[in-house]
């Protein structure tokens, strides 16, 4: 899919604007605190309904207003769509797709796949499993849409089971729930495991080019490794009932990233860990291009940050080889390192951001610079 235009109103520090994008490469540059990441954040919301920087929607609304509004024209599944999102400080949200109210966030997510790599994600390996699970599940969903319904059903059953645990007197009261929960949980994790297997060759080839001398591998951990889930739920009943909470669920699954026999998070340098995260995101993009129903829009925040020159160049080379219908948005403080990438694309749009005001820059003046 690609985003043709976006109107932004009362979002963070951005002045009201309407931006027309290139279907290929878009570069947003400007000084610190200009509003570059805020633009990427608004694009991300089109595909996720939420930010990648915060779960608190009221932080996104400009200080002087009560709601923000985004209105996008995009092409998805081969046809044009108009998508509007208004989010209020009190968390209310109004979404419209092609003039019709849109009530389910999942409809938004399946319409508009948007993927992001931002400095926030460089902690992916060291932080808890939930970030890795979210990343994994986003990928699974865009390759296999039926995953979402099963995942939601599973979540609902876990909530009901937890509620029942608080009042139950014996495991027998839970058996009927578990007869539904167990096969569904196994199915959800099977999707995840299959996705990991599909992802592995893409990841292996990218990480080999980034870190040729380091052994890094991906492993899916299902959350009840080495056990039969049905049996485990019976055995863990006393513990589950004591805490009013199911200990072994799909919410314990993880994508384990190993370097040899050690966890990559405990062994690799910070820079190496950033490259592993970058390789994971790029592998997901490549896999979605090959197997997904449409190309995700790819957002890259602060390309200059945290990678050395050699590895930044590797990332730029990877981006320069993307298919022509892949839409990319990159933010940076300095344009110079991106000149070679700009010269390799036919259709580039440059946006300069200054104190929340966005100006389109004539690419001819920025192209063909040595
Ligand atoms: N709700 C809000 N209302 C008004 N301004 C806000 C709001 N939230 C954040 N800001 C301000 O918006 C500015 C732009 O932030 P943003 O993160 O987009 O900058 P940036 O260009 O990505 O900077 P950097 O290069 O440092 O990453 C910051 O000064 C921030 O304090
Ligand atoms: Mg930023």
From TrEMBL:
Keyword DNA repair: yes
Residues reported to bind ATP: 30-37
Keyword NADP among record annotations: no
Domain of life: Bacteria
Compartments where found: Cytoplasm
Predominant location: cytoplasm
Domain annotation RecF/RecN/SMC N-terminal: ranges: 3-354
Stored InterPro entries: DNA-binding_RecF, DNA-binding_RecF_CS, P-loop_NTPase, RecF/RecN/SMC_N, RecF_2
Keywords: ATP-binding, Cytoplasm, DNA damage, DNA repair, DNA replication, DNA-binding, Nucleotide-binding, SOS response
SUPFAM superfamilies associated with the record: P-loop containing nucleoside triphosphate hydrolases (SSF52540)
Family (UniProt): Belongs to the RecF family.
Function: The RecF protein is involved in DNA metabolism; it is required for DNA replication and normal SOS inducibility. RecF binds preferentially to single-stranded, linear DNA. It also seems to bind ATP.
Protein name, per record: DNA replication and repair protein RecF
Organism: Kangiella aquimarina
């Amino acid at each position: 899919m690609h985003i043709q235009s976006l109107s932004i109103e009362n979002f963070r520090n951005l002045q009201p604007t309407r931006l027309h994008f290139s279907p290929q490469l878009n570069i947003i540059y400007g000084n610190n605190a200009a509003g570059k990441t805020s633009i990427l954040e608004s694009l991300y919301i089109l595909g996720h309904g939420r930010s990648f920087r915060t779960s608190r929607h009221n932080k996104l609304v400009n200080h002087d207003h009560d709601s923000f509004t985004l209105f996008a024209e995009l092409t998805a599944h081969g046809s044009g769509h108009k998508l509007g999102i208004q989010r209020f400080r009190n968390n209310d949200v109004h979404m419209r797709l092609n003039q019709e109210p849109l009530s389910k966030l999942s409809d938004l997510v399946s319409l508009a796949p948007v993927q992001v790599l931002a400095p926030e994600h460089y902690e992916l390996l060291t932080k808890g499993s939930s970030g890795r699970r979210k990343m994994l599940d986003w990928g699974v969903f865009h390759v296999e849409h039926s995953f979402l319904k099963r995942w939601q059903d599973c979540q609902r059953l876990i909530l009901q089971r937890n509620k029942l645990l608080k009042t139950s007197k014996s495991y027998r009261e839970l058996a009927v729930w578990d007869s539904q929960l167990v096969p569904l949980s196994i199915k959800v994790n099977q999707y995840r495991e299959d996705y990991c297997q599909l992802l592995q060759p893409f990841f292996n080839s990218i990480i080999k080019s980034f870190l040729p001398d380091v052994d890094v591998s991906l492993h899916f951990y299902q959350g009840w490794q080495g056990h039969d889930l049905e049996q485990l739920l019976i055995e863990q009943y006393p513990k589950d009932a004591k805490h009013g909470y199911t200990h072994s669920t799909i919410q314990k699954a993880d994508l384990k990233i190993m370097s040899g026999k050690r966890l990559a998070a405990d062994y690799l340098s910070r820079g190496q860990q950033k490259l592993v995260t970058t390789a994971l995101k790029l592998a997901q993009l490549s896999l979605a291009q090959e197997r997904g129903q449409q190309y995700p829009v790819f957002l890259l925040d602060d390309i200059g940050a945290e990678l050395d020159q050699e590895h930044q160049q590797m990332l730029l080379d990877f981006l320069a080889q993307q298919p022509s219908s892949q839409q990319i948005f990159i933010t940076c403080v300095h344009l110079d390192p991106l000149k070679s990438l700009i010269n390799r694309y036919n259709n580039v749009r440059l946006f300069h951001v200054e104190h929340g005001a966005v100006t389109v820059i004539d690419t001819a003046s920025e192209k063909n610079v040595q």
